[in-house]
Amino acid sequence: MRWLTGNVEELSKEIRQEQAQLNENNELIEAQVREIIEQVREKKDIALFEYTKQFDGIELDSLEVPSEIINQAFEQIEPDVLEALEKAKENIVSYHEKQKELGFVDFPKEGIIRGQKIEPIEKVAVYVPGGTAAYPSSVLMNVLPAKIAGVSEVVMLTPPPKNGKFIPAILVAALLSGVDKIYQIGGAQGIAAVAYGTETVPKVDKIVGPGNAYVATAKKQVFGQVGIDMIAGPSEIGVIADETANPHFVAADLLSQAEHDTLSRSILVTNSKKLAQEVENEINNQLKQLSRESIARASIENQGLIIVSETFDEIFDLMNEVAPEHLEIALDNSLDYLGKVKNAGSVFLGHYTTEPIGDYFAGSNHVLPTSGTARFSSALGVHDFVKRIQYVHYTKDALKQDRDYIRTLAYQEQLDGHAKSVEIREEDN
């Protein structure tokens, strides 16, 4: 891991520049994705079958996953995995139920009604990566908030398996969450299909879920035609720790994110040089025990950071500037420090609250803003699947009382038509 020193401003600037470099646009991918989207818009299902053969090496009989294959997954899944998914679902539902919003109605004065109503988005697509990046926990995290919000139709996209056999846990998680249909389409072509619709695949209103660079680029290019959740970058974790922290725990937590991807970033910020050295030593020991050692090692060596700072004020100022996806506070009395956190995707408090608790089981969402975007965005939740519709009602007398203010502002902005739409109602007497 690299050791960094400097003041908060210098360090945060350096880290954010590095974050930006990891998310730079690839012009070649941009062009390739643009072509794929155009082909899907023009040729629809035909393009999907062709791209599946070209990119996945598979000739499909059907774009939709047959119901018998989905139902068989319950017979194939290991009982302990099924139980864990069901328990995780309970926690995710109980947490996200509390995010449901209520509308309001307001009567500021006689003759005027103002309000806001909450309406669910009608159709949503959830993208689920295939291969080794197929995570059933992500199915639960993306679909359940949508269903709680009241989304009437949720479809799932996932690449067709190379050996013809889906991971049972993925299909079971989809059924447990309430997915309506599953399509075996991956990549940019899958994103294009749900953005514009084909003979088989429905057009949706919003697309959520993680994916590779082609999926992320496609989501960015279709934004505006449909809504999207976010453009996710590499996973990241920041750990704030002092001499009370266990270096074995801290090292394991940093590696829990490093094993995701070679570009994943793990940052330790501490006021203890002794702890920092112990954590670095422990990381070297624990790396050898990981099945994804090569990925985690590349991540730690190229993206991992250790920063030693003297005061907690500086430490929290730095972390708020970095705005990490995951933030662990490995301090005694960790709840006392929650008020210092201004920017983070999700916060894990105390020596025993490891980040994977949030990934899988606590109920909080694990779809989080990355690359510093926690400065202005939040974890995926029920609020991402609703619309807030404003409404206003004025009686004739109420308009008469306020018309001069409205006309004044309209003429100030040189929008005569706005003013006349008020004035014409004065003439209707």
UniProtKB/TrEMBL annotation:
Family: Belongs to the histidinol dehydrogenase family.
InterPro entries: Ald_DH/histidinol_DH (IPR016161), Histidinol_DH_CS (IPR001692), Histidinol_DH_monofunct (IPR022695), Hstdl_DH (IPR012131)
Name the record gives this protein: Histidinol dehydrogenase
Pathway membership, UniProt: Amino-acid biosynthesis; L-histidine biosynthesis; L-histidine from 5-phospho-alpha-D-ribose 1-diphosphate: step 9/9
Keywords: Amino-acid biosynthesis, Coiled coil, Histidine biosynthesis, Metal-binding, NAD, Oxidoreductase, Zinc
GO MF annotations, alphabetized: histidinol dehydrogenase activity; NAD binding; zinc ion binding
Catalytic activity: L-histidinol + 2 NAD(+) + H2O = L-histidine + 2 NADH + 3 H(+)
Described function: Catalyzes the sequential NAD-dependent oxidations of L-histidinol to L-histidinaldehyde and then to L-histidine.
Gene3D superfamilies, sorted: 1.20.5.1300, Nitrogenase molybdenum iron protein domain (3.40.50.1980)
Record: residues binding NAD(+): Y127, Q189, N212
E.C. code: 1.1.1.23
EC class: oxidoreductase
Residues at which substrate binds: S235, Q257, H260, H326, D359, E413, H418
Taxonomic lineage: Bacteria, Bacillati, Bacillota, Bacilli, Lactobacillales
GO CC annotation terms, alphabetical: cytosol
Domain of life assignment: Bacteria
Cross-referenced NCBIfam families: hisD
Gene: hisD
Chain sites annotated for binding Zn(2+): Q257, H260, D359, H418
